[in-house]
Amino acid sequence: MTKHSFVHAKIPQYAQRPERDPSGFSYIKHLLMMWKQNWQTRRQLAQLSAEDLRDIGLTESQRQEELNKSFWEP
User: Fold this and answer.
1) What's the number of CA atoms in the CB half-sphere (13 Å) around residue 11?
2) Domain of 55, in residue numbers
């Protein structure tokens, strides 16, 4: 039996759960970073061509579903 080694991708800081601190600042910072990332990726998704969508395995309806979400929705 062969042992497989898995490569673990580094999770971006904005996607990691923040540690709780008494001021709540890190939690707010975490939310703002996630919201910014959501906004940016949806903006990029809106600019993809039909060929690009096929390349990444998305349909036009899936794109529209994602684009209809607000920036705070995961």
Assistant:
1) 6
2) 22-67
- The total number of structural domains in the chain stands at 1
28 within some domain: yes
Q: Which has the closest alpha carbon to 38: 71, 8, 10, 70?
A: 71
CA–CA dist 54, 45 (Å, integer)? 12
The reported pTM is 0.63
Per-residue pLDDT, averaged over 1-8, amounts to: 44
| pLDDT over threshold 90, residue 24 | no
